[in-house]
Specification:
This protein is α+β, with helices and mostly antiparallel strands. Helices cover 18% and strands 44% of the residues. The strands form two sheets. Strands 1, 3, 4, 6, 9 and 11 form a six-stranded antiparallel sheet that branches. The protein is globular.
């Protein structure tokens, strides 16, 4: 008698399982193909290479970026605070000059194959009480993009475009430069932020 009860119980479990599987199969068949079988989005799986080293300053130091300035600057370097485009760190500089002043942030020996089409860009922001800050981005002497930053609270702005890497011509790789220029400024000077720089190929 006990064997019969166990057999009936096993048959009941198998029958219930069969019904559940049948229902799930029917539901899956009724779903649109896009929902039933998700497809990988190529935009999220396409490999991209940023040829720069320390492009977002997340190392906490400026290296291997080189800074060249003209006129008077009270502050320059990599800082950690809430105003970053992404991550934790960014590059920040403040000029206390009221006359023409420039800041050039550059990186050399970038290992980009000559002839490669790349997306060359930088995210920048600026603050000043009057006048404008001119921003130019270059790769191997070719201008990737330019913009102006005016009066008001700083807002991040992407500057750049696609260009072809030509190299330095001496086997030393490519050079990227971000140039910030102010022709004149008020007594409070002017400020500039740089973050998330790219020489990217996808």
């Amino acid at each position: 008698m006990m064997k019969l009860i166990k057999s009936l119980s096993t048959i009941s479990i198998l029958f219930t399982t069969w019904i559940i599987l049948s229902c799930l199969t029917s539901i899956a068949a009724a779903l649109p193909a896009s929902l039933a079988t998700p497809k990988a989005d190529p935009l999220f799986h396409k490999a991209c290479s940023n040829y720069l080293t320390n492009p977002s300053f997340e190392s906490g130091v400026t290296t291997p970026w080189l800074t060249i300035v003209t006129s008077a600057w009270s502050t320059r370097g990599v800082f950690k605070n809430w105003f970053t485009h992404s991550g934790t760190y960014h590059y920040y500089a403040r000029s206390n000059s009221t006359v023409e002043s420039t800041l050039t942030l550059s990186q050399s020996n970038i290992n980009v194959p000559v002839g490669t089409m790349v997306d060359c860009f930088a995210w920048v922001a600026g603050k000043r009480s009057d006048g404008v800050t001119n921003i130019e981005v270059y790769l191997d002497g070719a201008r990737c993009g330019a913009t102006t930053l005016g009066v008001g609270d700083p807002q991040w702005k992407r500057v750049g475009s696609k260009v072809r890497a030509n190299g330095a011509g001496n086997g030393m790789g490519s050079t990227m430069a971000i140039v910030a220029t102010s022709k004149s400024a008020g007594r409070n000077g002017w400020e500039v932020w740089v973050d998330d720089v790219g020489v990217v190929n996808c």
